[in-house]
Structures are given as C-alpha cells and as structure tokens.
Amino acid sequence: MANNSTHTKFYFAALSLTAILFFVLDIVLGSVSISIKEIFNVFFSADKVESHVSNIIINFRLPRTCVALLAGVALSVSGLQMQTVFRNPLADPYLLGVSSGANLGVALFLLGSSIFSIILPTIVSNFCIASAAFIGSALTLLLVLIVSIRIRDIMTVLIFGIMFSGAATAIVGLLQYKSNESAVKTFVVWTFGNLGSSTFNEIKIMFAIIFIGLIIVIFSIKKLNVLLLGDVYAQTVGVNLKLTRIIIFVSTSLLTGSIVAFCGPVGFIGIAVPHIARMIFRRADHRILVPACILLGANIMVFCDIISQLPGSNIVIPINIVVAFVGIPVIIWIILSNKKIINE
Amino acid sequence: MNLQRIKIENLSLGYGNSVNTQHEIFPPFSVTADNAQFIALAGRNGVGKSTFLRTLAGLQNIFSGNIFINEKAVKTLSRKDYANLMSFVSTEMVRVMHLKVFDLVAMGRYTYTNLFGNLSINDEKIILDSLKMVGMSDFIWRNVSELSDGERQRTMIARALVQDTPIMILDEPTAFLDIPNKYEIILLLKNLTRQKSKTVIFSTHDINIALQLADKIWLMTNRKMYEGTPSQLIQTNAFDEMLDNTALKMENGEIKFKEL
Question: Which residue of A has its CA nearest to B77?
Fold first, then answer.
C-alpha cells in the first residue's frame, strides 16, 4: 500500500533522465568548444580524434563530472541523515565537525609547511592535502564517537560538534596569522572547493568509499524512519540507539570525509537538497527520501558544475560560489511557493 | 505472548551513576500489575511519575530494586525484548513535516518488518485495523503535522497498538485534550484491556477519571506509593496526603476546595 505512488515514480524517472542529460552536457560544454561527434569519437573510435581533444575530455571533463556527481550524491545523503538524527532542519553533513577537522588538517599541513619553509612538488602536495583532510576528519569522527557513546542526549553531541568546530577555526586562524601570504591563499582557495583536481585513481578511491557509505545508509533506512519520532519512540520500538548512532555517524563521515578530502568543503548542497527532496516528494519516508536525495544531489551538483565552467568563456568560478548562487534562489523560491510551510 | 504479572520490588527512583552523585527522588516501593488491568498512576507534578514510567519502560536504568515481568528480571532484556513486551506513548509532540498518519503508525511494526521496513499484507491489515479501532480511518494519508491534539494522540495510540504488546504504557495521554476527548481516549484505552487483554498503565492528573475508570490506582505522594482500587484509596485517605498543604481536599470521592 502506497499513496501517490505514480507521482513518486514519475519524479524518479524524470530525475534519472535529467541526471543523464546534465552529465552529458557537463562533458560537452566548457571553455573549449568540442562537438558531440568528436566526443563520441573519443570514446568509440579514438584514432579519429586529435590528441588534445581526447586529453581534455578524458583527463579533465570526464573526471570532473564524475566527481561532481559523487559529491552531489554523498553530501545530499549525508545531509539527510544528519537532519533526521539531530531532528533539526538546519543540520548539514559538517555538523559532526568533519569539515572543521579536515580544515584543521589541511591548515596544519599547508600553513605549517610554510612556517617551516618546506616546499613540495604540486602532485605530492595535492596528495598530502587530501590525506591531511581525511586524517583530520577521521580523528574528528573518533572524538564524536567517543562523546556519543558516553552521552545519551543528542543535543549535547550537537553542542560538542559546534564547540569542536569553533576550536578548530581558532587554531586555523592562528596558523593563518603566522603564515606567509601565498600559503594562506592556497588554503583559502582550497576552502572554495574544487571538483577538478582529482585523478582517476583518486576518483576510484572516492567511489569505493562513497559506495560503502551508501550501502550502510541503505541498511539504515528503517532506523532513520523511526528516528524521525525522536529517541524515546525509536528505543521503545526496538532500536539500539547507541549502535544506530555510531553506524549513522560512520556512514556520514565516510561520505562527507571522502568529498572534503578531494574537493574541499563543498557547502550548501548537504543542507538544501534534503529539503528540496521533501518538497518535491512530500513524504518523510526515507525509503523515498534516500533515493530522492541521491538523484537530486547528482542533478544539482552536475548542473552547478556546468555553470561553474561558464560555457564559452575562459573563466572558471569556484564551485562553492556557484552552489550558493544557484542553490539559494532555488530554495527561497520553493519555500515561498509553498504557502503551507510559511503558515506552519 | 500473554502477560501474567509485572512485579515491582523495592524499586526506588533517582538519578546518577557513580556513588558520589547518586540522588534518590523517591523511596523504595513495591507494586504489581496483572494481566488486562487498567492502572492509573497519579501524583503531583515533579513527584516522579515520568521517571517511574521511563524506568518501567527500560528508558532509564533501575536506580535500585527490581522489576520482574512474568517472573523474569528486566535487567537482562534487550531493546528488542522490551519492544515485544511493551509499547510506550510519551508526552512528546511529534511534528514531522510530510509524515503521513499511515507511515507513523507503521513504525510500530519495527520489530516485525524486514531489514528495509517493507510491510507485508498482514502488517498493513494490522495498521488499518488499529487506525479503525482508534477512529482514525478517515485520516490515513493526512500529514501528522496537520492533526489536532486529539487526533494526534489517537494516532500515537494506534502506533502503540500495532506493536502488538501485552503491556502498554502511556505518559499523560490526556494532557492536551478537551474533556470529551479525555473521556474518549481513556475509554478507548480501557476497552483495550477488556477486548485485547492488554495491561494498560497510564499516568494522569485527572483524578476523577482515574477514580471512575481505573481498576487500580498507583498514587505517588511526597512520602510513599499507595496501591489499591479507587474505593480502597478513598477509604484510606491516601488522597488527603497527596493534597497536603494545598487548598484542596478529597470529600465523598471528589476533589473540592477546603474553604468555599
């Protein structure tokens, strides 16, 4: 028995189609104009294409589009989980301090190496940034897990997350104050987010981590549904609260941590997409919301990536700025066109 | 599964886990509940009714003493065992956007459904029957956030019903309701004890309703726990102890002002 099931199926089908469309457009459009025929040849008859064209497609546009897709999916699902667990519409994937931990890791590496005047080649440096970010978020996760095992009240866990972020920001500030200008600029640019710096090997790692994270989420769907009613109801229908929280925190950190490590702290998607999913599908059931967030996250992030390339120009805008400019009007429009929500 | 008896032995209520921070809020008491009894838990604000119900539902560790259900100590029960023994309706207001009545009630089937929570034909039948029983059949696909307080409370009771447990515990189920709704909800709960042989334990401030309808009252005063049928408690003047230092008194089974 399901209400509105045709409505739901229609949106799932439509969103799958637009996701494919945006994915193709993101590869076709860019600062260098390449025809669809040439792109077709790159994949199916490589000998007919000039090497610089296939280089642009294979080494730049395809990996960036894949990363955009992965980032959209991972951050949206993480955001949904956090909003449910904390029962707070303002919760986002970074609530547990994952991005602050990553920030701190990267700042320690970039700014620390500038203080000690260490210069590394770019490839080594990129990999070290990703590692520093991942170690930073993993350590943060460990801290949050220890706290959440000892503390029953989820709001206390939330406050702990905010305090930790504050402390990390203070340390990052101190490091910035003590570092030279170019190191600070590298750090600030990292915080803008970058979908285009990952190699295929890195994308394989990202894909593997996100895949594991999503599998855990899919097996948490039933628990997430019950958590909507709050901790007391969840426990009295048979949920082991501590274990469930640990599982959800681990999957959120895998999903978010892998994106932050390779793309920087990409913002806004994680908080906005779950709301858009709820407004389109009009259900609170995670059996609908999880796939909805996967599809919508992929759509919106790839679309933002198209915009960030400013097709036909040579300018590339940092992804975080595009996400904010594209996302904020969309969500305001949705809220304003939904009068019921305003009155509530 | 049927309940034979809940036996609460020398249970005291309190907070704190280490020896230094232990704080007892209610002294040890012993009470029992039998199969299909309708039991009202009464007492003034802050006396520890909610703490007692939370302890009984395993949401809080036992401070001291023992609780036995069918001769088995509850300390060994897992969350799943509890969920199969008792359902719980708290005072917390559920307001989740776009949550449908049907979906909320379906959550009560948590221990019965598969890994993804997919409902079987039988689950759906139980959900629809429960919604019918509480008079919410016309509200199945309504949003929970759009319900009135009375409708929401009925929905929460339906959610507890589908859990299909021998014991139902409700913390102030009539708190936000008008007088007709109060009586309807309490009568509905009493019917469950008669038709479905459920043991229903509910806390309440409506002494008059408790006196008229409960099989047994557990009365918490500042000093001790009284247990008995409504008429036994009236005869032993237990309510006067509850109304100590107030402007009220119990007279002929009714609460009245002392000077009027």
Answer: A238
Q: What's the average model confidence in pLDDT over B194-211?
A: 92
CA distance linking residue A269 with residue A278, whole number of Å:
14
The residue with tokens 């008079």 is B135
Encode pLDDT of A202-227 as tens digits: 899 899 999 999 999 999 999 999 99
**Residues of chain B contacting A344 with CB distance shorter than 8 Å:** 97, 145
Pairing label, strands B199-203, B38-43? parallel
**3 state SS of B70:** coil
pLDDT tier for residue A268 given thresholds of 50, 70 and 90: confident
pLDDT surpasses 80 at B19: no
Report the alpha-carbon distance of residue A172 to residue A190 in Å, rounded: 13
Angstrom distance (rounded) from CA A59 to CA A202: 13
Gap between the Cα atoms of B63 and B75, Å rounded: 11
Do residues B198 and B20 lie in contact, with contact meaning Cβ atoms separated by under 8 Å? no
Asked if B185 and B40 touch (Cβ cutoff 8 Å), the reply is no
Average pLDDT, chain B: 90
Chain A residue with minimal CA distance to B96?
Answer: A228
Fold of B5-257: Rossmann fold (3.40.50)
Whether B141 sits inside 8 A of A282 (CB atoms) is no
Query: Domain locations in chain A?
Result: 5-343
Contact yes or no for A236 and B124 at CB 8 A: no
Q: B226 has which bridge partners? A: B219
**Is the pLDDT higher at A154 or at A322?**
A322
- Domain residue extents for chain B: 5-257
CATH 1.10.3470.10 fits A5-343, yes or no: yes
Which segments of A213-257 are extended strands (E)? none
Instruction: Report the residue of chain B nearest A217, measured CA to CA.
Output: B116
How does the average pLDDT of chain A come out, rounded?
85
- ipTM comes to 0.90
